[in-house]
């Protein structure tokens, strides 16, 4: 499999009261097509900073991010915004759905940024909402009229409508209970099995075991990596393998 993303000597530094804080340190990383990559690590380790740098949401201080064969660190803000809309999907802990728009219109609005063929985009939106188990009777409802788990799955539909090369998920189950969180993870796993590349930041071991590749970030560097293989529900050995790995990392 070829690389979707490659970083070279990636650095991110913040200045806080004149003190330089090195959040990412000369980080080299490859993300393969079709992988479900999970980024873990203690608070303040640089996990979300790495996610934002990989996706072009934040510019590194030094180094390169080569995404889909293009060095996105050299792009202007306008070109980078267009690139993100075309190549990336985003799922956050908060859904950021527009409360004044229906479920369907929230998904359509993302699709219509890329294509002006409303009939075609509507058909895609209907298909993807069904695929994340949002029934037709919910399509005309507003985000405040559906559950948190349903809203997060609508967010996944919105992220996927333009068939992005990569979906970036930052703590997508962090605000959900275990049942609704599982529904969201099931949706992400389903799309990954269909070939969708995903990079997810999480503190949650239940969420993390959905990935086939675990990266442990500590002090702005990749401290360890674990290959878990494809996810299989109920695999107790997988869970223990992940626990052992995290224990070795000082989790």
What does it look like?
- There is one protein chain.
- It contains 8 helices and 10 strands.
- The protein is of the alpha/beta class and 251 residues long.
- 39% of the residues are buried.
- The strands form 2 sheets. A 6-stranded mixed sheet has the order 6-7-8-3-9-10, with helices on both faces. The protein has a 4-stranded antiparallel sheet with strand order 2-1-4-5, covered by helices on one side.
- The model has no long low-confidence stretch (mean pLDDT 94).
- The protein has one domain: Rossmann fold, CATH 3.40.50.
- Helix 4 packs across helix 5.
The arrangement of helices and strands along the chain is EEEHEEHEHHHEHEHEEH
- Which of globular, elongated, flat, extended, rod-shaped describes the shape? globular
Largest sheet at a glance? 6 strands, mixed
Placed side by side, the strands forming the largest sheet appear as: 6-7-8-3-9-10
| Total number of strands | 10
Distance between the termini: 31 Å
Radius of gyration: 18 Å
- Tally of individual domains: 1
Low-confidence stretches: none
Class computed from helices, strands and strand pairing: alpha/beta
User: At CATH's second level, what is the architecture?
Assistant: 3-Layer(aba) Sandwich
Say what the CATH topology is: Rossmann fold
Beta-strand level of the residues, as a percent range? 25-35%
Task: Give the % helix.
Answer: 25-40%
> Mean pLDDT across all residues, rounded?
94
> What is the class in the CATH system?
Alpha Beta
Q: Name the CATH homologous superfamily.
A: P-loop containing nucleotide triphosphate hydrolases
